[in-house]
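note to self: dont lose this again. the chain is below, predicted strucutre after it. 134 aa total, dont forget to put it in the shared folder this time
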Amino acid sequence: MNRDLLITELTFKAVRSSGAGGQNVNKVSTKVVLTFDLNKSQGLSEIEKALLVINLNSRLTSENVLILNCDEDRSQLKNKEIVTKRFLELIKKGLFVPKERKATKVPRAAIRKRINNKKNLGEIKKSRRKPNLD
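---
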């Protein structure tokens, strides 16, 4: 993953933000919409693209385009920084491959200990019974 190349491939669009802000909301386009076309990216290898398609399936459009919004701040520049940071974290999480689990045997001592505990519990329960007076 080439981080600098990925950032150059991003497309930003400023849109009027909704919500609180008074007249500023009606005048200034502070909301930032980030779009990233996964298929056309040169910053990712084909393997990384396939991995991202699988891991980010719910966030991608049918054309494999990732769209992120940010309208947290009243500043367009800060919103652009926030959405870029969010994008990089999302890509990093999408490329994460968990380690394969190695199957291990249960140790003999653990098996022995479990069986002894079961026997002891059985003895305790047996001693609680009413005596057989036949």
